[in-house]
Amino acid sequence: MRTITIGPASVITRHQAVMVARQVIAHARVGHDPATARQRIRGAPRMDDFIAEYWEKCAPTWKPSTQETAGGYRRCHIDGAFPDAYVDSLSEAEVIKWFVALTDRSGPGAANRCLEILRAAFNKAEKWGYRVENTNPCLAVRQNKRNHRTRFLSDDELVRVGAMLAEARSSDDRTLHARASAILLLILTGCRVSEVLGLHWTDLKGKRLLLRDTKTGPRTVWLGDEAREILVSIPRAAKQPWIFWNWRYASPIKSVQDLWAQVRAQAKLRDVRLHDLRHTFASHAVMGKENLPMIGKLLGHALVASTARYAHFDDDHLLEATETIGAAIERAMLTGSL
Questions:
Q1: Which of the listed ranges 28-32, 98-102, 203-207, 321-325 does the model predict with the highest average pLDDT?
Q2: Among 9, 38, 114, 264, which residue's Cβ finds the most Cβ atoms within 10 Å?
Q3: What are the phi and psi torsion angles at 280 (to 5°)?
Q4: Residue 67: which residues within 8 A CB-CB, separation 6 or more?
Q5: Phi, psi of 85, deg, nearest 5
Q6: Neighbours of 63 (CB within 10 A)
Q7: Sign (positive/negative) of CA torsion 279, 285, 291, 293?
């Protein structure tokens, strides 16, 4: 015989106690023993101690970029968020309260990322025996709706950006030349910023870039003549593996954000991020009538669904498509053939 304490009679009504008791008995009949489960997790740590243990065991297996990003979210939003809670007793209500406050304070994107980190941590808590299985308090929390941007550069905007980058690449400043070349390569390949700035000379094989590590694993990027000429024109630092080298500080280039801010201001593009250059590559490929699986392969997407959100058209292409379809229908009505 085992005794299960449901709760204090001063708080729980008779009806609530009966309902919980029926659930406990039903679980017991299929072999689940709540008393044993509680005994197993009785030594569960406090939340901060558990997060520290989770990081120590799991973070070394993550990519360096993931460690850096997740570490920042942990320091800013997770550490100290539940000072009095134990990992086995944290409730959905407490997580929801934290998530709503975080959304108001730091925005929907940051809140979503922190929730993903916490959900993964609680999955490990169940696996390590700190919580009863299927009690992850993050599962019932609905993430904030994600608003995918649809911004890409038009032909006129590309001309203005190209003029700014050409001027920077013509400079005698080798660092400025390399940074401008990196931005231009983003436009011509659709690569992510980290993929371009992390390139080594050994990654360049003819008209291919063999990326050692990306968001979806190693992949090959095919280069057009223009992209290859840009890479070949970059000054090479002796005995250094990196393609994009900061000659001023004798170190790899870590960011081109400040140069992009200058180019964007001169080209009068207030709302264009560096990542929108990847969006531009994909959108122009779609407008060039490339199919989504092909574009997904060029971008390194594992799923076609990931590519579909890049498939946006400007008004000119929509009008052209409408006129083509309309002309075909009219021709069929008049002649009986398409």
A1: 98-102
A2: 114
A3: -60, -45
A4: 59
A5: -95, 150
A6: 12
A7: negative
Could you tell me which residues come within 8 angstroms of residue 185 by beta carbon, excluding any fewer than 6 positions away?
A: 191, 196, 227, 230, 231
**Cβ–Cβ < 8 Å for 208, 263:** no
CA distance 303 to 337: 38
Nearest Cα neighbor of 156 from 324, 308, 280, 299 is 280
Nearest CA-CA partner of 174 in 264, 274, 261, 250: 250
CB 292 within 8 A of CB 311: yes
DSSP character string of 280-301: HHHHHHHHTT--HHHHHHHHT-
Give the mean model confidence (pLDDT) for residues 207-216: 79
Each residue of 19-74: pLDDT tens digit?
878 877 877 776 666 655 555 445 688 999 999 999 999 999 988 878 989 999 99
Q: Which 3 state secondary structure label does DSSP give 245?
A: strand
Residue 211 backbone dihedrals phi, psi, to 5 degrees: -75, 125
Residues 43 and 50: their CA atoms lie apart, in Å, by 11
Given a contact cutoff of 8 angstroms between Cβ atoms, the answer to whether 180 and 165 are in contact is yes
Q: Minimum mean pLDDT among 18-27, 268-277, 327-336: which range?
A: 327-336
DSSP state of 256: -
Burial of 159 by CB count in 10 Å (0-12 exposed, 13-18 middle, 19+ buried)? exposed
- Whether 275 and 113 have beta carbons less than 8 Å apart is answered as no
Q: Quick check: 154 and 314 in contact, CB under 8 A?
A: yes
Instruction: Read off the pLDDT of residues 68-124 as tens digits, 9 standing for 90 and up.
Output: 899 999 999 999 999 988 998 899 999 999 999 999 999 898 999 999 999 999 999
DSSP state of 74: I
Cα gap 76→150, rounded to integer Å: 29
